[in-house]
């Protein structure tokens, strides 16, 4: 599940599912504005782990700025891989599907997001919204947007950020909810990569079968080829439909969709 559109929609699906199902938990009792902010962050965060690959489309989202950041992350990921791998780990450079594809990174991203917004919400929230909106737009529009058109992505991201900030007061956006959204988005990415042929080293640095970079994955018969027919014709559409359905259910729970009160979108 490594193509941009599927990754992006999986982030939205994961956020929608968590907030719709956890109706008795604070994360399931957000205001419509806070939920929407989380949706943007989770959708964008579902692309974030691929910033470890300088050649990826996502790494070119904001032109030279994101490309330079991606190159730096790739070097760091390679270094961590080389210094922590065991004898049974493959002798690859470890740049892609390395450090940013672990639960350690997801936890760091979540805590960092929450801490920054908590301490500097006035400027941090718009900046983070802009960045994650850009990743989300690039992922979703991957098949229609010119690969090198960073200006278009920047303009669309700025528009989304302006609309969200104009709609959301400073007290609406919960720092904790924003951090959780980013963590959920990253985790959705890992699940998507785990069901591809390569698997995903989610549990690093825990040694499994003599490997600290053990590629977590289901049996081979349950894996799929990245960008193959199964993903594009079956998995992608299903993820999109579920994300819309559960997103509506979550918004219904916030009271944002009173015109749908006549139907129970989540009968559990």
TrEMBL record:
Source taxonomy: Bacteria, Bacillati, Actinomycetota, Actinomycetes, Pseudonocardiales
The keyword Transmembrane appears for this protein: yes
Entry keyword set: Hydrolase, Membrane, Transmembrane, Transmembrane helix
Span of the signal peptide: none
Protein's UniProt keywords contain RNA-binding: no
Transmembrane segments: 58-77, 98-117, 123-141, 150-167, 173-192, 229-251
Protein name: Metal-dependent hydrolase
Organism encoding this protein: Lentzea sokolovensis
Molecular function terms from GO: hydrolase activity
Source superkingdom: Bacteria
């Amino acid at each position: 599940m490594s193509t941009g559109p599927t990754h992006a929609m999986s982030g939205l699906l994961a956020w929608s599912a968590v907030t719709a199902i956890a109706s008795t938990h604070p994360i399931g009792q957000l205001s419509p504005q806070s939920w929407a902010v989380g949706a943007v962050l989770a959708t964008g965060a579902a692309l974030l782990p691929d910033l470890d690959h300088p050649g990826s489309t996502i790494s070119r989202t904001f032109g030279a700025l994101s490309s330079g950041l991606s190159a730096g992350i790739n070097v760091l990921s390679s270094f961590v891989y080389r210094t922590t791998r065991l004898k049974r780990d493959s002798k690859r450079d470890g740049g892609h599907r390395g450090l940013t594809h672990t639960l350690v990174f997801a936890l760091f991203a979540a805590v960092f997001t929450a801490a920054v917004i908590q301490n500097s919400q006035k400027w941090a929230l718009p900046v983070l919204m802009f960045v994650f909106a850009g990743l989300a737009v690039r992922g979703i529009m991957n098949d229609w947007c010119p690969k090198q058109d960073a200006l278009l992505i920047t303009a669309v991201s700025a528009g989304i950020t302006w609309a969200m900030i104009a709609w959301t007061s400073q007290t609406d956006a919960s720092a904790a909810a924003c951090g959780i959204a980013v963590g959920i988005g990253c985790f959705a990415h890992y699940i998507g990569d785990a069901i591809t042929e390569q698997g995903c080293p989610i549990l690093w640095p825990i040694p499994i079968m003599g490997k600290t970079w053990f590629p977590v994955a289901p049996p081979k018969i349950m894996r799929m080829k990245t960008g193959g027919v199964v993903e594009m014709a079956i998995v992608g559409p299903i993820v999109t439909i579920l994300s819309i359905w559960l997103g509506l259910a979550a918004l219904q729970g916030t009271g944002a969709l009173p015109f749908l009160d006549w139907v129970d979108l989540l009968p559990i």
